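Sample entry (181 residues):
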Amino acid sequence: MRLTQWTDYTLRVLMYCAACDGRAQPVTITEVAEGYGISRSHLTKIVQQLAAAGFLETTRGRGGGMRLMRPASEINVGVVVRATETDFSLVECFDVTTNQCRLSSHCRLQNVLGESIQSFFAVLDRYTLADLLVEGTPAPAATGVVRLVPGLPRRDPAPAEVPVFTAAPAPLPAGDPGPPG
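Predicted structure, serialized as C-alpha cells:
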C-alpha cells in the first residue's frame, strides 16, 4: 500500500507548522514550498483542505500565513490520513460495483487485506502530530533561508550538518592476526 502524494504533502505541511509552533510569524505557503521543493499552487490546495477540515487556521494578506488550529498533541495521524486518502480498495474485490473476480466467493484475500488495513490504522491512531517531531527541533525564523534537517526546518542560518556514518570494522575471528601490515 502506498499513500498518495496529497497525503504525504499534507503530513509535511502539518509537521512544518508544528515545528514552527510558538514562532511570532505564521508559516507561509511559499516558505513550505521552497523548504520542501513542492509546487506552491499544489500546496495552496492542500492548505485550503486542511483549513476546511479544521487542522489549520489561515490568515490572508501581509503578515498572513497558517498555524495549527489546535496543539500538535491533539492532531491524530490516523484521522489526518483518513481525511486525505480517498481509496483504500487494495484489490478489485474491495469494490462490489467493479468486482469481476470469479474467486470472490471462495477467497479469503479480501478478509486478510481488510484486516491489514485495520492494523495499519490501529498503528496510525496511536500517534499524534507531536509524536512525529524530533524533540528539541528548533523552529525556523520567519525570514531568511530555511535549512532542513530530514523533513523539518532549522532556525539557524548555518548549513545543516550531515551526519557521516562509517562502518565499524568487523571483529576478527579468534586467532586471526588481521591483514598483513
